[in-house]
Write a structure and sequence with these properties.
The structure holds two protein chains of two kinds.
Chain A (H helix, E strand, L loop, with lengths): L25 H13 L1 H22 L1 E2 L7 E2 L3 H7 L2 H32 L6 H14 L3 H10 L6 H10 L21 H10 L3 H12 L3 H9 L4 H29 L3 H6 L15 H11 L3 H26 L14
Antiparallel strand pairs in A: 1-2
Helix pairs in contact in A: 2-14, 3-14, 4-8, 4-9, 4-11, 4-13, 5-9, 9-11, 11-14, 13-14
Chain B lengths: L24 H34 L3 H4 L14 H7 L5 H32 L5 H10 L6 H13 L7 H4 L10 H10 L3 H8 L4 H12 L1 H17 L2 H6 L8 H9 L7 H21 L1 H11 L4
Helix pairs in contact in B: 1-14, 3-14, 4-8, 4-11, 4-13, 11-15, 13-14
Classes of the chains: A mainly alpha, B mainly alpha.
Chain lengths: 335, 302
């Protein structure tokens, strides 16, 4: 398979094959074939573990199916019954509320902390490490269990501290007490948001490296023009790191829409969505329909709806960002 | 940051006072740095508090956990909580072994496939390559569930339920996750060696094995760590595919552990939780540079 550098004159000229995917020239042809060889794991995976399952999920979503008996075509009946399913709407509402609360807050905190660390603070490496440490563990069962303990209404340390500060006998006796957090339907989503914010070190790291990449010449020029620090922040820093903000928002939204582990673990696995469906995240309801109720057709419809929602949200964010995101000319274009 | 809120007797008389406290640029920077450092210290205290509280709880007696006001430091550290939590009915050594086996296997599969695919995308020219790469990236958007049910069907039909195979085998077929990082790294490597090797008659597979892989060890290290951490904490995959306790990884084992105590034996629960976070934390401190590189380049959390 060595590359041959000399072409025999008068040899039969090949034509590009497979709609031009395989070029005519000998060297180009060999390189293109090697390319397909190298990416073949991905191609196989894409067909077997992505394309086929997506299409099958689409097919199941149009069928009545319970894993046991063969799927039976019912048209759009699953989608129709989801539209009339109040728990489905509740799950959508819970998930949107969580996404809208946790993603912007995570970005704001991450950015503020990155700005703080970018002020030439001493022990930068130590701070960076310590702030990142919780992010290492987010999404794990241990963190979900830890927060269910911290937020325990009776013995949880957060409520103890609240009571000590503003409780009836506290330092400032306002007679207030902490909320019941994960046990109060109105406080469930803020509790999950608190948990996700604990891992804001990951976005902090990304923002910090973006901030360090902003050329200092831009700040010097702004200063000569008389821009204040705040003006510099909004007119230099934000535009320069806007691609990173966009990227973090998109991955943040995709992640938040799919929260599962914490909600499942905190519910103990058998009280899904408690209390009063206030923690019935989208994927939790999907799990319930698939593996507990065996309403696989309906669950497949939910999965497809989620895919379309995420697709639309991503396109929307790209579209909205066209006006606001600044891209430096890159040798290879975007990406 | 708080540049207008701070006032203080810091103006030196010798200086012109037309900008108040902010008389000199150096002084201004100095004040900002002090405030930033103070805020960072406060932030670190807040963010590390849950971990400290976790450790403190894990060393208390059951009675001490519930007293009010709580003790910040255990009166007598109960080290036997750890042995109680980790031995007996909950075979944590077994959970750890399972996690290492499955996370290690999945990591190996991902490293191998990602490295091959990223090499193809970064170094070889072929028509349609860029469009294909956009397709690779767009699969990152796909929710887990839209592919899960048919995969589950297939794996259950071929009898792979309650084995590690559904969690390991698909990883050998390159997902999008982190191919991006490796591709960026490969693009930065010099082309000279490759061209020399081509002229010497090596093929691309040989080049990948003998030149690219050895040169990309740092990037592979970053990717390996992120992949390992992902599988170490993964809960959903094992939850769906593993059904018997003997196959549980620690993520499921920890959850399993909670049930019999009805959520009340927090001292033992925290002891078990602390144990599960020790390996990632150690790995993090050893290989911090790789972690940070991986997160910064790829923009995703492992």
């Amino acid at each position: 398979m060595a590359v041959q550098t000399s072409a025999v004159p008068g040899a039969r000229r090949r034509k590009p094959a497979l709609f031009g995917l395989i070029p005519a020239g000998k060297i180009e042809r060999s390189e293109a074939l090697w390319f397909w060889f190298f990416i073949s794991p991905w191609v196989i995976g894409f067909l077997a573990f992505t394309t086929y399952p997506i299409l099958m999920t689409g097919y199941y979503s149009l069928s009545r199916f319970d894993f046991r008996n063969p799927p039976e075509w019912v048209g759009l009946a699953n989608y129709a019954s989801l539209m009339g399913d109040s728990i489905f709407w509740k799950s959508l509402q819970v998930t949107s509320y969580y996404t809208l609360l946790s993603v912007p807050l995570g970005i704001i905190f991450g950015l503020l902390l990155a700005l703080l660390l970018n002020q030439k603070v001493p022990w930068l490496g130590v701070f960076r490490t310590l702030f990142y440490l919780p992010a290492l563990l987010t999404g794990s069962v241990a963190v979900a269990l830890l927060f269910s303990w911290l937020l325990n209404p009776q013995f949880g340390i957060i409520n103890v501290v609240i009571r000590n500060f503003v409780g009836p006998d506290g330092m400032i006796p306002l007679g207030l007490s902490g909320p019941r957090w994960l046990q109060d339907p109105n406080w469930v989503i803020p509790s999950y948001t608190l948990m996700s914010l604990w891992g804001f070190g990951a976005s902090m790291l990304i923002f910090l490296s973006a901030l360090q990449g902003v050329p200092t010449a831009l700040y010097e020029a702004a200063e000569i023009d008389g821009a204040s620090r705040i003006q510099q922040f909004f007119n230099v820093t934000i535009p320069m790191i806007s691609p990173v903000i966009l990227f973090t928002s998109i991955t943040g939204v995709i992640g938040a829409m799919q929260l599962f582990t914490a909600a499942y673990v905190i519910s103990g696995g058998n009280n899904l969505g408690a209390p009063a469906y206030s923690s019935m995240f989208y994927n939790l309801y999907l799990f319930l329909n698939t593996f507990r109720r065996y309403r696989v057709g309906m669950a497949s419809a939910q999965a497809w709806i989620l895919m379309v929602i995420i697709l639309l949200l991503t396109l929307l964010m790209f579209w909205l960002s066209r006006r606001y995101v600044y891209y430096e000319a890159d040798e290879e274009g975007a990406l | 940051m708080a540049d207008t809120t701070t006032t203080g007797p810091v103006v030196r008389p010798a200086q012109q006072v037309h900008r108040g406290v902010w008389a000199s640029k150096a002084r201004q920077e100095q004040i900002i740095r002090v405030i930033a450092t103070a805020l960072c210290l406060l932030g670190v205290a807040i963010i590390l508090f849950p971990l400290a509280w976790m450790i403190s709880t894990s060393l208390k007696t059951r009675a001490e956990v519930a007293i009010f006001p709580p003790t910040w430091v255990p009166v007598v550290p109960q080290w036997q909580n750890y042995t109680d939590a980790l031995t007996g009915a909950n075979r944590f050594d077994n959970y750890f072994r399972n996690t290492m086996f499955y996370a290690g296997g999945a990591m190996f599969g991902e490293l191998l496939s990602w490295s091959l695919v990223a090499y193809g995308f970064s170094r070889l020219r072929a028509p349609g390559k860029n469009a294909l790469f956009v397709l690779v990236l767009s699969t990152m958007m796909l929710p887990f569930w839209v592919t899960l049910i048919p995969q589950y069907m297939v794996f259950s039909r071929i009898g792979w339920i309650d084995t590690f195979l559904p969690l390991i085998v698909p990883k050998f077929f390159g997902s999008a996750y982190l191919i991006f990082l490796l591709r960026q790294f490969y693009k930065g490597l010099p082309r000279d060696y490759e061209e020399a090797a081509l002229i010497d008659g090596a093929n691309y597979l040989g080049i990948w094995w003998r030149i690219i892989l050895p040169l990309s060890l740092p990037a592979l290290g970053a990717v390996a760590i992120m992949s390992f951490m992902f599988h170490y904490t993964d809960y959903m995959g094992p939850l769906i595919y593993l059904t018997s306790d003997k196959n549980y990884p620690i993520s499921l084992g920890l959850q399993q552990f909670r049930a019999p105590f009805g959520g009340t034996a927090f001292h033992l629960l925290m002891a078990a939780s602390v144990t599960t976070i020790i390996p990632p934390v150690i790995l993090f401190f050893i290989a911090q540079r790789y972690f940070i590189q991986g997160i910064v380049v790829s923009g995703v959390k492992g």
